[in-house]
Amino acid sequence: MNLIIQGVQIATPDLKHLAKLAGASAIQAITPSAFRLCNAHEHAEIAPFCEEVKLDHAFVPLARRLADMRLAVMDMDSTLITIECIDEIADMQGLKPQVAAITAAAMRGEIDYPQSLRERVALLKGLKAGALKRVYDERVRLSPGAEIMIARFRHLGIKTLLVSGGFTFFTERLRERLQLDYTRSNVLEIADDLLTGRVVGEVVDAAVKKQALLERRDQLGITRGQIIGMGDGANDLQFMAETAVGIAYHAKPLVRAQAAHALTYVGLDGVLNLFN
Asked: What is the pLDDT of residue 74?
């Protein structure tokens, strides 16, 4: 295994200490903020030390190559982008605290996601549809490193699937902007240029996200071993479990505990460094 260390700032003494703990044979720079400790071994002190000095760490098999991957599946809110869109839409109604509290509980896995979404969307009833464009134009920001990561996927022919409990208004604009291959998300009902407070059709929850991944996997004729998954909330765990490399990105504790890897301090381009 190689041990990948990433962080905003990596002090040389900390890197050398980790190399010693892991019994690494060499230290290789990947980028100024990422290093590979070669032929490393697990040690009980590595995780707590990295947490103390705010570094991301991941043990990576020597044979894992990004060029072998064929599909990257990612969540949207708080993963590909920095915000929760529904919270920002609710802010246009002066209801952000109430909606954000429900969102946070759902992402922690404390309440049923479909029911929580319906409750939140109901609070948006009567809002002018133009508020969606305002949120996209004024508040949607890509997570750091997102464009670098996706450009690399595209260069290698890795297909991209955006699965979201958010809304098509945003996923479709991101699909066009980033040249993503596929999207799956919820449709907000609009009548007379106003939100009705309802979602059209099936709610995209954890099970639907997983199904969207499996459909694309079968369509592409690939295996679980060729899929990367990224998410931050409890409703991402099912689809991440169907991937070879599941990454909890700036995620809730429940997700970090169950994912193969966690990136807490670096951007999405850190995903690229988890491959040899």
From this structure: 98
